[in-house]
Amino acid sequence: MRSATFVEWSAMSPYQIVHIKPGVIHYPGYFDVGEQVKLVTSLRSLVADAPMFTPTMPRTGKPFSVQMTNLGSLGWISDRQGYRYQRTHPVTQLPWPPIPQWLLDAWHEVGDYPLDPEACLVNLYSTNAKMGLHQDRDEADLEAPVVSVSLGDTGVFRVGGTARGGPTRSFHLESGDVVVLTGESRLSFHGIDRVIGKTSTLLRDGGRLNLTMRRVSPRDLSRIGYSRERAAAHVAAQKKGPYLMAGRIVETKLRIPQARLNPAARTSLIERLTPCGSKP
Prior knowledge:
The protein is of the alpha+beta class and 280 residues long. The chain has a single domain (6-272), classed as Sandwich (Jelly Rolls), CATH 2.60.120.590.
């Protein structure tokens, strides 16, 4: 049976809060039009330092339909070696740019979590891109929420339960919206069915930007079954090692081929992040 959606208005908050189901919280219009333009402008300079690349599926090597980059101390990537977090861009080998303060503020306000996010995935969807149902479970800290910001064209977001194949429901994420997965829905399967083109003029050439913030490292290693020795090794490795997968360091030298970072495509992507018009 489908759970009921209810809308909350609070005198303590200027935002409408829509509870899609327990642990799935939608904040329509969290960022207003002017804020959205400023956000895209700041993202444009960050993407110049950490250019978009095309991740690939671990087993097949099939490219994703989205292009991506990361912000924060850790960045999520996918390639033949699997899904993982690492400290450097797979092509430039440089550290990821920091997560801007406006994103950190949103994380703490809607996520209600005491620690900062360590990773912010930046996914760029064209109008024919989509993302299949999946769980965000490569993180060691599953107590922390997942907080996502939508910019640009409307995305049809689908969310289910914590078991694959269960009932799902969908709703629209418009430009400026924020959605949170937390609590019992932290590991819910979710994805983007499609992008509805020409629903926003925020990005010059259309498309949708999704910024997803996650906390990766365990909040308290002893609470999730780490021995004292393993916890100490984890902390030491995290300080110097570049790779982190679900709470463990992965030593590998694999890099995404330079061919996947086409200079012309890079320029085009940066230009697409130029705000266009004042109506999202």
